[in-house]
Amino acid sequence: MTEPTTDATSNDDTAPDGRVVLITGGSRGIGLACAQRFIDAGDRVAVTYNASPPPPGVFGVKCDVRSADEVEAAFAAIEAEFGSPVEVLVANAGITNDGLAMRMSDEDFASVIDTNLAGAFRVARRASAAMVRARGGRLIFISSVVAMLGSAGQANYASAKAGLIGLARSLAREFGSRSITVNVIAPGPVATDMTAALGDKRLAQLTDAVPLGRLAEPDEVAAAVAFIASEDAAYITGAVIPVDGGLGMGH
Question: What backbone torsions phi and psi does residue 135 show, to the nearest 5 degrees?
């Protein structure tokens, strides 16, 4: 089993009764924006990462969500750091491995499913045990507008992101009697390092397809995550909340 490594300081200046929040894939982009939102609200925040550790001030645990052993070790490290189990989980870790379906290998398909869908299941399964005992908690899955629209060259990614919706709604029914809500955030194109690497021509195509005519900022996605994790959203479960500038309207 690979032991987790931590690369940041604890959130010592947060309120001692702040919730314990875990964001997978939280060292940059949407995940880091979510982490900052929760930290600013006084929560005790941990993020997992695979390659790049989070910036100073964010408690990070190296974890490959494809490994059940590493997921278990990461949760143990977070529980030891904060003295409490995870109360809010944001399953955000994901990868892309694009290619046309006729040329996509089994490995290319399986790697994305294993990370983006099965990885989300692994962390939700681990987090839910303590939430059931506590009779409360929040499970939040970061999907994508392509889960509903599809995307040429992304059969693996779209399948994984669509699978998160079925996963979330199944868990919402399983855990509803324990006051655990399970919801999905479905962003459209977001201004991150990943989209910046697409080049100006592709970015222009993406922007033109969005009715609001621009990419989302990571913090706009984080705002939806923060809301669905809040007490104001206690009666919302099994929902898919779009943050896509209208790109997926009607789905």
Answer: 55, 50
| All domains in the chain, ordered by first residue | 20-243 (3.40.50.720)
Cβ-in-10-Å burial (0-12, 13-18, 19+) of 64 comes to middle
Q: Using an 8 Å Cβ cutoff, are 92 and 31 in contact?
A: yes
**Per-residue pLDDT tens for 114-139?**
999 999 999 999 999 999 999 999 99
Per the annotation, the verdict on 235 as an active-site residue is no
Report yes or no: 138 and 89 within 8 Å, Cβ to Cβ: yes
Contacts 24+ apart (CB under 8 A), 169-175: 169/238, 171/124, 171/128, 171/139, 172/237, 172/238, 173/238, 175/128, 175/131, 175/132, 175/137, 175/139
The dihedral sign for the CA sequence 211, 241, 206, 189: positive
Q: Are 61 and 36 in contact (CB under 8 A)?
A: no
Q: Tell me the C-alpha distance between 105 and 70, whole Å.
A: 26
Task: Note the pLDDT tens digit of each residue in 155-208.
Answer: 999 999 999 999 999 999 999 999 999 999 999 999 987 777 777 888 888 899
Q: Determine the Cα angle at 182 with ends 181 and 183, to 5°.
A: 120
The one catalytic residue in 157, 218, 222, 225 is 157
Residue 216 φ/ψ, nearest 5 degrees: -75, 150
